[in-house]
Amino acid sequence: MAARPKGGQSHGELSGKALTSEIARLGRSGRWQEVLQLATKTLSSEGGLRPNVISMNAALAAFCRSRAWRWSLALLGVLETRGLDPDAVTCGSAIHACGIGNSWPTSMALLRRMKTLNAEPSTTTLNEALNALQFDTPNWQTGLELAERIATEGLRPDVITRGSLASASGHRWAEALNLFRSMGGAAALSTALVGGIISSCTAALRWHRAMESLLHLRQVEAGAGVSGSLVICRGSVLKSLARSFRWELCCAELLEMWRRCRSQEPRSSAEPPPDLWAHNVCISACELSGRWRQALLLLRLARGCRLQLDEISFASAASACTRRGLAWAFGLWLFEELRLGGGPEPDAVFMTATLTACDVGQRWHSAMKLRRTLEMPGLQTDEAMNLPVMSCCQRSAFWTTALQLLEEMPLTYGVGNAAVGACSRAMQWMQSSFLLRFLPDRDVLSFAAFLDPS
């Protein structure tokens, strides 16, 4: 049931400013269905209500706020049939609604129709249309053509325009950099612009261009007053370096962040310190490159800086230890750090990485000892966690241990093959053939584990 408007007036008694205020009030409350009823009653001239462009603009804004973008387009069509000329605000609200609904072709069509509706497009309207393009980066050329056409009509793209174009460019990092170079000065920089440019370079794995953009931002950020964008931009640069396997530059950039944070120079004093997410990205970069020593050093750096380490920090460092056979001891050290150091509880990802490190390093007894801790409350074991343990049994021919473990874990393809191999290496052919008979999805690898005891 619709709420009664303020002041005791019914909808039929509303007119002029009161009608607009009532629609705006309902829109701020998210009651777009009541706005739709009131707009329909107004356009049908029921109850003596007279529609006007201002009140209908308020209705369009209410639909956009509630993400009911299709009703915005329907209302715009009704306004045209009733002879009400939509203004720039009306068209801008409808274009913004298309952006909410990820319908960029409709927003482009509305922008082209503005002149036929006697509504002059503005820079704000252009920005709303470009914002719709950000959800469909393959059509970045449409945004560039649109910006050029609007510029020839006397409109001047602002910082938000260029930032939207940079975000819509996606992998077209060269076009995004051209937007960067076309800025008039340091005062024209913004979070949207620089963040969009660096994001475009990150998506295209152009890490050197992303670092150049960040360097330029640092050189002018004191005068531009955009230090708040540094956290976002630095994170994008670190992500780009990690994806490009540039672990050394990733670590160097992290140290540069700490240097600028602790520096007493006026131009660097405003730069915030790197957070745990930045450290985790660098640890992951070392993990991808097999640099387990550097991953452990970064873990120590984060702890020395009094950052509260999480599961991602330890899991990434433990996974880095699985890349080298001699790193098994550090994987166990990380496990003890979690248990005794007051850190987060070891999760399945961390335990799998640590067991794999013991398997690669052929530390079978350590893996068996670690296996007993898998009975911790809240920790669910799966095949990825069981397979390294059974692989250790196969390497060491611990066939009795393998059979005991099979009573505690499901007989899957990988675990079963390793158990067959453990029995075969111990020359226990009867047990090996028995397991092979009940092995699910056995293939040539299963028979190879049965026939090759070496």
Note down, in words, how this protein is organized.
Mean pLDDT is 70; it is low at 1-14 and 183-189. The protein has 454 residues and is an all-alpha fold. 45% of the residues are buried. α7 packs parallel to α9, α8 (140-152) runs antiparallel to α9 and α11 runs antiparallel to α12 (207-224). The chain contains 25 helices and no strands. Helices cover 66% and strands 0% of the residues. The chain has helices at 17-28, 32-43, 53-65, 69-81, 88-100, 104-113, 123-133, 140-152, 159-169, 173-181, 191-203, 207-224, 230-243, 247-262, 276-288, 292-304, 311-321, 328-340, 348-360, 364-371, 383-396, 399-406, 413-425, 429-437, 444-451. The protein is elongated, with a radius of gyration of 32 Å.
> What percentage of residues falls in helices of 4 or more residues?
55-70%
> If you average the pLDDT, what whole number results?
70
Order of helices and strands: HHHHHHHHHHHHHHHHHHHHHHHHH
Radius of gyration: 32 Å
Question: Which band does the percent of strand residues land in?
Answer: under 5%
The end-to-end span amounts to 80 Å
* Global geometry: elongated
Number of helices: 25
Major sheet description: none
How many E strands?
0
Name the structural class: mainly alpha
**Any low-confidence stretches, pLDDT <50, length ≥5?**
1-14, 183-189
